[in-house]
Every structure is written in C-alpha cells, then in structure tokens.
Amino acid sequence: MVGQLNNFWNQLPEGAFALAPMEDVTDTVFRELILSVSHPAKLKLLFTEFTSTDGLCHAEGYKAVVHRLKVNQSERDLIRERNVKLIVQIWGNDPEKFFRASKAIADDFQFDGIDINMGCPVNKVIAEFVFCPHWSAFTCKGNYSGNH
Questions:
Q1: Which residue from 145, 96, 85, 97 is spatially nearest to 119, judged by alpha carbons?
Q2: Average pLDDT, 10 consecutive residues per value, the chain (148 residues)
Q3: For the chain, what is the largest distance between any 2 Cα atoms, rounded to a whole number of angstroms?
Q4: Nearest-CA neighbor of 148 among 127, 117, 122?
Q5: Other residues' Cβ atoms within 10 Å of the Cβ of residue 131
Q6: Where are the alpha helices (DSSP H) in 70-129?
Q7: Angstrom distance (rounded) from CA 81 to CA 44
Q8: Is 120 part of the annotated catalytic residue set?
Q9: Of all helices (H) and strands (E), which one includes residue 142?
Q10: Residue 52 CB neighbour total at 10 angstroms
Q11: What ranges make up the beta strands (E) of the chain?
Q12: Distance between CA atoms of 73 and 71, rounded to whole angstroms?
C-alpha cells in the first residue's frame, strides 16, 4: 500500500448497520442478498466469513480457504453503488501469520479493511485459540475493550 490510508470508520453515518461475520454464512452470495434487500442508507459494512491465517499461509490450506475471500462482480457493483465497505475477518494464534496473511490480502485482494478476530465464544475455537494480550494491545493500539 502506498500513501495515506483512508479511515472510513470516522465517516460512517450515525446508526449505520453492519452484517457481522458468520462462519459458513456470510459468503458473497449471502452478502449480496442481504445488501440487495437492505435500506441503502443503513447497511454500510459487510464482513466476510472467518478466514484462518493458518490456511492463508499454507499452500494446501490456502486452496481450502481462499473461497471465503471471493467477491462476485454483481456484489462488487452493488457495494460500489451503495458506498458500502467490505471487510475481511481473519483469525489465528500466530502473530507472524497474522502479518503474512494481512500482507497477502492487502496485496492480492480489494477489501476496505482487515478485521483481526481476537477471540470467539465458540468452544471449539476457544480450545484452539491462544489469546495474547500483547498482540491485541499492539493491533488495537491500546484501546482493546474486550468487545471484539
């Protein structure tokens, strides 16, 4: 990325809605469907499905998870028409893989932001996820509220 980043978070209208990331739900077809039936002035943020940094950083794993980053042209057109931001959500437990996955996403895809999932209430994820307060403080610039 070259130049100054655009912080769209400060430009969202008050009362804007977001379609939260949902495992095996918020793919390109579902996002487009929800966007097409939503009030154009309200829905302003769409999130991808959760995408594993382990998967993105492994040759075979990449093939298994890259479909989660797919954006159909018709969805992209609607996003542009309605000025909606599309954010990819990644998760994992290795800071180096967060870095590598974020760089690959920024270089190879056209998302408006990358959301780093720092915890999940699902038991399967909790059992495998190692929460690192130093990493969250770094990524959230000391403003971690525990609500992410």
A1: 145
A2: 68 92 93 96 95 94 95 97 96 93 95 85 55 38 37
A3: 42
A4: 117
A5: 10
A6: 73-82, 95-108, 123-128
A7: 11
A8: yes
A9: none
A10: 18
A11: 17-19, 43-52, 85-91, 113-116
A12: 6
Strand order of the β-sheet with 43-52 is 17-19, 43-52, 85-91, 113-116
Active-site pick, 57, 120, 132, 140: 120
Side-chain half-sphere CA neighbours of 6 within 13 A: 7
* Residues whose CB is less than 8 angstroms from the CB of residue 21 and which lie 6 or more positions away in sequence, other chains included: 47, 48, 49, 50, 89, 115, 117
Token pair of 129 as six digits: 């996820």
Q: In this structure, what are the phi and psi dihedrals at residue 93, rounded to the nearest 5 degrees?
A: -140, 15
Structure tokens belonging to residue 27: 């793919």
Q: How far apart are CA 86 and CA 127, in angstroms?
A: 29
Look up residue 57 and give its DSSP letter: T
Contact yes or no for 118/129 (Cβ under 8 A): no
Under 8 Å between Cβ of 35 and 46: yes
pLDDT digits (tens, 9 = 90+) for 69-91: 999 999 999 999 999 999 999 99
| Matching residue, tokens 């093939």 | 63
Assess contact for 43 and 84: CB atoms under 8 A: yes
Q: Where are the domains of the chain?
A: 18-139
